Amino acid sequence: MFRRRVALAALCLALLPCTPALAWPLPHPAQPAAPAQISAPAAAQLEALTGEYTDPVEPDTPLSFYGSDGKLFIESERNIPAELKPHSALEFGLADSKTTFRFTLDAAGHGETLVVSTDPEGSVHRLTGSPVHHLFHDYQRSGVMIPMRDGVKLHAVILKPADLAGQLPFLIQRTPYGVDGTNRASFSYSRPELARAGYIYVAEDIRGRYKSEGEFVMSRPLIDHGADHHDPKAVDESTDAWDTVAWLLANVPGNNGRAGFIGTSYPGFLAMMAGIDPHPAVKAISPQAPMIDVWIGDDFFHNGAFRQSYGYDYVLSMESGKEEVNVDYGKGKDGKPRDGFDYFLERGSFVEDVKKSGSKLLPTWKLFLEHPAYDSYWSSRGVEHSLNAVTVPTLSVGGYYDQEDMFGPQEEYARLEPHDANHQNFLVLGPWRHGFWASSARHLGNLDYTEPIGKEYRAQIEAKFFAHYLKDDPGPNPSSFDLEDTASFQTGSNTWKRYAHFPPKESQPTSLHLQGAGLLSWSNSTAQATTSYLSDPANPVPYRHRPIQPTYSVGSQWGNWLTEDQRFVTDRKDVAVWKFPVLKKDLIVTGEVLADIYAATSGSDNDLVVKLIDQYPGDDPDPKMRGYQLMTNEEIFRGRYLESFEKPTPLRSGSIHEYRFSLHDVDHVFKAGHTVLVEIQSTWFPLYDRNPQTFVPNIMTAKPADFQPATITIYSGPDHDSTLQVPLLNACGHIECF
User: Fold this and answer.
1) Contact 350, 368 (CB under 8 A)
2) Nearest to 149 by CA among 201, 214, 227
3) Which CATH number fits domain 139-288+387-441+450-490: 3.40.720.10, 3.30.420.40, 1.20.58.100, 3.40.50.1820?
4) Quick check: 598 and 714 in contact, CB under 8 A?
5) What is the β-pairing status of strands 282-288 and 255-264?
6) Whole-number Å distance between alpha carbons of 670 and 491
């Protein structure tokens, strides 16, 4: 559901993390005045600096500089032309911004390199050619208040291209993150391909947020859409989408009678809701990283385990007022920012977080405290229960490294697929963190994909999808939408794959057995074996490298944590490890990975975290990846919910239970020379709250004395065969194959 970073709030429009590029001309807040300006440079000086400058590390978003009327201008494929102010002969700045551009000249006096003050230290752009001018439509902005059926009015910003003749479709994003910053520059920056294609773009504040009237309800429950959906007292995000479209059709001239919805994260959920009982004019939706069920597998819970730091941070930021507020863990005795690991460990259970927050009891916090199990309060918010028809063409987009809503797009596609008689249910998956397909970067953390996969997706799939369904794009031709079903960027091989269905029918679920002595094998052992570790809630396993910053704070490492090297915890005594022999050939895993683990606890409740890991060889060609332990799949399950998510029950101490749960989809090649690892642990803190390991009715209100160490035992062998079911595309069933 992520909220926006403050510095780019007006530009990113709830699409963060935005591409690592410049954003102008809007200023950063609370910035000092720019340095005193010098006289305008001579035309010859400007000519010397003219050109396209490219960052060799991220070469797909070059910057173009050119002179006009005695002034230096800058633009890129995302950024509309902006005038630069001279600070010196070789340094320029954006108005009302700290961003500066410092040039160096070659021996002949021509521009050679460029350093941008907002880039990472050491980044240098180099002159690579003549300046490139990009197409930017003349979007004219207007603000409106749109009435809903119950009389509540929602604030929206409309951008209409004045330079395009003919009738155009609507492209709509509804959001809780504020739309006041929506303008020509922000639209071009956040969705450059769609802005270039030409739509009547509408950005709308949902109920109770920013300038919209009404009450904000987090993940507002669905009404009964089998009943009369025109009941003025029955409203949800679907009815608000309907009413928005109806008003736009009647009140905005020059439209072609069609509308599409798009959004990422919370706006992705809102885009998906526009496809439930849709207005007849809605012809396409693209829910991207949508939260589909925040208890089962998205933002707030995973299989019953509560996401403590996220549930605290996000709700505090969203429900403290109509606009987001920053969350701060304060400072330690040394004056440095508090480590979130210590912050939540010292507070204990979630009820103590709430008491010590300094805030009133917020609505969703109250929901956490009073409804920890999957009752009707949560199931009414589960959109998957209503996905029983492909009502409009649907393009679901998700990331294999999405730290917030990995479950949503995968589940949405899977729920709709049995109903897809007209082949209008599409899926795109890639090795992206939350929303990072909005970026043109080639890298994610330490990973290098060698090509700008987000940019490729946006140009080759997203833009064509909306053109096809909203503009009657003629086909077939090279610019037509041609996705049959699923596109996936396969990691390891770093290649785009297209499938007629996901997972592809060639993928074979194959058992990877956890044997004794920490071994993995394709065959089950004839001998029963056990692996045990002591899980201590007082010393939980951190989920990412410390210190742990507030989720959306400046400098937070939240975005990339799923790609972090797991060697920082592998050697802990409370992490059990199984290893496969070094692979002799590539191992291709495409589809859903399932954990099927037999375990017992000496307590009466527990959590199991299962991780599938690709360990790189020690002589990998990339020095930073040597020995690297990269998670490909991971998930948690809370033991009290083994019998039912609705009614938790204690575990009998010492009894063996089967934990069978999904580790989600993957499309990955474990390369020859790499090693496959499986790790199991029982804490993952403070991403997930600590299980007391003694059964209590409500973990949210557990007392300090309830938290007790427990011995967790994993069983393997013929009687209790603990496995990972991995979907292999090149399976042969024998260890010597790999």
Assistant:
1) yes
2) 214
3) 3.40.50.1820
4) yes
5) parallel
6) 9
Q: Print the SS3 string covering 347-406.
A: HCCHHHHHHCCCCCCCHHHHHHHHCCCCCHHHHCCCHHHHCCCCCCCEEEEEECCCCCCC
Q: What confidence tier does 43 reach under pLDDT thresholds 50, 70, 90? A: confident
- Reply yes or no: is the peptide bond before residue 503 cis, omega within 30 of 0: yes
At position 188, the amino acid (one-letter code) is: S
Residue ranges per domain, the chain? 31-129, 139-288+387-441+450-490, 307-379, 508-737
CA pseudo-torsion sign 437, 441, 445, 446: positive
CB neighbours of residue 142 within 10 Å: 10
Confirm if 462 and 286 have CB atoms less than 8 A apart. yes
Task: State the Cα–Cα distance between residues 191 and 149, nearest whole angstrom.
Answer: 31
d(CA 245, CA 495): 39
Beta bridge partners of 576: 680
> What is d(CA 722, CA 529) in angstroms, rounded to the nearest whole number?
10
Integer Cα distance of 382 and 421 in angstroms? 24
Which amino acid type is present at position 26?
L
pLDDT tens-digit series, residues 251-268: 999 999 999 999 999 999
d(CA 140, CA 138): 6
**Beta pairing partners, 634:** 611
- Tokens for 130? 């003549």
Rg for the chain, CA atoms, rounded? 26
pLDDT of residue 393: 98
Which fold would CATH assign to domain 508-737? Jelly Rolls (2.60.120)
Q: % helix / strand / coil in the chain, to the nearest 5?
A: 20, 30, 50
Give the helix ranges, DSSP H, for 72-200. Answer: 184-190, 192-197
Give 526-592 as a DSSP string.
Answer: SS-EEEEEEE-TTSPPBSSSSSPPPTTSTT---TTGGGS-THHHHT-TTSEEEEPPPPSS-EEEEEE
Share of the chain above pLDDT 90, in %: 88
In 643-707, where does DSSP find H-type helix?
none
* Overall pTM surpassing 0.85 (yes/no): yes
Evaluated on CA atoms 132, 138, 144, 148, the torsion sign reads: negative
The DSSP symbol for 688 reads: S
Q: Kindly report the backbone phi and psi dihedral angles of residue 638, in degrees, each rounded to the nearest multiple of 5, phi listed first.
A: -95, 120
Phi, psi of 139 (to 5 degrees): -75, 120
Q: Within a 13 Å sphere around the CA of 555, how many CA atoms are in the beta-carbon half? A: 7
* Residue 27 scores a pLDDT above 60: no
Peptide bond into 686 cis (omega under 30): yes
